[in-house]
Design brief:
Blueprint: E1 2-6, H1 11-22, E2 26-31, H2 34-41, E3 48-52, H3 58-68, E4 75-78, H4 93-121, E5 125-129, H5 143-165, E6 171-175, E7 180-181, H6 184-188, E8 197-198, H7 199-211, E9 216-217, H8 221-232, H9 235-250
Parallel strand pairs: 1-2, 1-4, 2-3, 4-5, 5-6, 6-9, 7-8
Helix pairs in contact: 1-7, 3-4, 4-5
C-alpha cells in the first residue's frame, strides 16, 4: 500500500505517517519544508518519497496530483493546515485568505482529484484532518479557522453519503481532535487553556479508526462531550463560551 500525507513534516501529519510506516505502508510525504521532510524520511523503514510544495497555492495541488497520478495511491491524508487567533476585524486579510486556500481549497482539490481514481479502482481511504472546532456554533477570535474546519467536516460527511449510496468500497473519515501538543499553537499565537493530547496518541487513534472505516474520529472523552453539547446547547450560549475559551488562549 501507498499513502500520501500532506503537512507531514511535523505534528499530527508526521505522527500519522509514522503510524502508517509501522504498518509497512509506503509513503509520499508532502510539506513546504523539504529539509524537515528529508530528515524525517531517513528515520522510516519503508519506501518514502518526499515532495516539497506549498499547497496553499492551488496550482501546486494540481501539480502534486500530476506528479503522483500514475502511482496507485491507496490512502490520502489531507492534514496540511494552520490557524490564527485575533478579532476578525483586526485579522490580517492575506493570512486569512492563505488559511482558506490551505485548509479548504487544498483539501477540496486533492479530495476531488484522488477520489476519482479511488472510485475507478473501487478501493482507497481518505482521511481529512479537521478539528473539534468544526462542530462549534462559531469561533469568535478564531473565526476563519473555525469556519474552515466546519467546511472540511461538512464536505467529508457529504462525500461519505455519496460513496455509501454507490456501495463503493472507498472510505472517507474525518479526524476532529481538540487541543493537541504540536507547533499549531505557536503559529496560531495561542496557548491552550486545557491539557492538550499528545500528537502520537491522536495519530494512533486516527490510523486505527481509518482502517475500521469510521466516519467521525473524535479523540478524547472531553471532545466527545463537546460534540454532544454542540447539538443541544443554545446557539448564543455556545458563542459566549467559545469567546471566553479563545480569549483565555490569548492571555
Amino acid at each position: 500500500m501507498v499513502a500520501l500525507v500532506t503537512g507531514a513534516s511535523s505534528g499530527i501529519g508526521r505522527d500519522i505517517a509514522k503510524k502508517l510506516a509501522d504498518k509497512n505502508i509506503n509513503l509520499i510525504l508532502v510539506s513546504r519544508n523539504e529539509d524537515s521532510l528529508s530528515k524525517f524520511a531517513k528515520t522510516l523503514k519503508v519506501k518514502t518519497r518526499i515532495i516539497a510544495l506549498d499547497l496553499s497555492k492551488k496550482q501546486n495541488c494540481y501539480k502534486l496530483y500530476e506528479m503522483t497520478k500514475n502511482i496507485k495511491i491507496d490512502i490520502l491524508v489531507n492534514n496540511a493546515g494552520f490557524g490564527s487567533c485575533n478579532k476578525f476585524s483586526d485579522s490580517d486579510l492575506l493570512t486569512d485568505i492563505n488559511m482558506i486556500d490551505l485548509n479548504v481549497c487544498a483539501v477540496q482539490i486533492l479530495s476531488r482529484l484522488y477520489v476519482k481514481d479511488f472510485i475507478r479502482r473501487n478501493r482507497g481511504y481518505i482521511l481529512n484532518v479537521a478539528s473539534s472546532a468544526g462542530f462549534a456554533a462559531g469561533g469568535p477570535l478564531m473565526a476563519t479557522y473555525y469556519a474552515t474546519k466546519s467546511y472540511i467536516i461538512k464536505l467529508s460527511l457529504a462525500i461519505y453519503e455519496e460513496l455509501r449510496r454507490e456501495r463503493s468500497n472507498v472510505s472517507i473519515s474525518v479526524l476532529c481532535p481538540g487541543p493537541v501538543k504540536t507547533k499549531f499553537n505557536k503559529r496560531a499565537g495561542v496557548h491552550f487553556s486545557v491539557k492538550p493530547m499528545l500528537s502520537e496518541d491522536v495519530a494512533k487513534m486516527a490510523v486505527e479508526k481509518l482502517f475500521q472505516k469510521q466516519l467521525l474520529i473524535i479523540p478524547g472523552l472531553s471532545m466527545k462531550l463537546s460534540y454532544i453539547a454542540s447539538k443541544i446547547l443554545p446557539l448564543k450560549w455556545q458563542l459566549r463560551v467559545a469567546y471566553k475559551i479563545q480569549h483565555k488562549k490569548k492571555n
